Amino acid sequence: xxxxxxxxxxxxxxxxxxxxxxxxxxxxxxxxxxxxxxxxxxxxxxxxxxxxxxxxxxxxxxxxxxxxxxxxxxxxxxxxxxxxxxxxxxxxxxxxxxxxxxxxxxxxxxxxxxxxxxxxxxxxxxxxxxxxxxxxxxxxxxxxxxxxxxxxxxxxxxxxxxxxxxxxxxxxxxxxxxxxxxxxxxxxxxxxxxxxxxxxxxxxxxxxxxxxxxxxxxxxxxxxxxxxxxxxxxxxxxxxxxxxxxxxxxxxxxxxxxxxxxxxxxx
Length: 267
Known about the structure:
Layout: E1 7-12, E2 15-20, H1 26-32, H2 35-40, E3 44-48, E4 52-59, E5 62-69, H3 74-80, H4 86-99, E6 107-115, E7 118-127, E8 131-133, H5 134-140, H6 145-164, E9 167-168, E10 177-180, E11 188-190, E12 197-198, H7 204-217, H8 224-237, H9 245-266
Antiparallel strand pairs: 1-2, 2-6, 3-4, 4-5, 5-7, 6-7, 8-10, 9-12, 10-11
């Protein structure tokens, strides 16, 4: 994983591109200048909703993950056209995490279609990881407790590394974690940084929001004992062995309350 990510800017008409130095090549630029066409020819389309369209695309014979943030009507456009685009926020967080050694797909490029200062549509391109959703692999290996425990430990280490990098994920649900092939190694990556924020410090409320979202999304996949094992590993990885009882109780209480709120909203 590279830690010296450097990007170059390119502007052509209403298209603005920020691309990695090592991919600033005529053959690559020719293809990413037409991101919609890339998505139309996507090998795999993971999502195609009103908010986003995302899939695996081929650029110069290599697979990449491309995500488009769709225009969502005149009122949404009016609220967001002058703001910094979502891909700019995502690329800032993913670059930060990559430099900290956190397993997240490396950012490759972002593209914006603008008319003057008005943002029309935006895109983010990342490296493609050969992987499956962590949730699916846990469900398939429910009769393999040794592998499950290893996966839980690695997941706890990954989330601790995100928080130690002073990043709050913001949408830490099960589907936002993938497991790289070969699955036996239980090498886990975090994806979908749309709601992530780099903060000056991660406090108990930030930790609780992320962990509560995680526990809630895994409630039907992992048993309560697995949740407890995860939490013990997380505390160790965060190097807070001497966490005061009051602080530990506050964190657990906050997680419990947020989880109940998720349940109430669902019901």
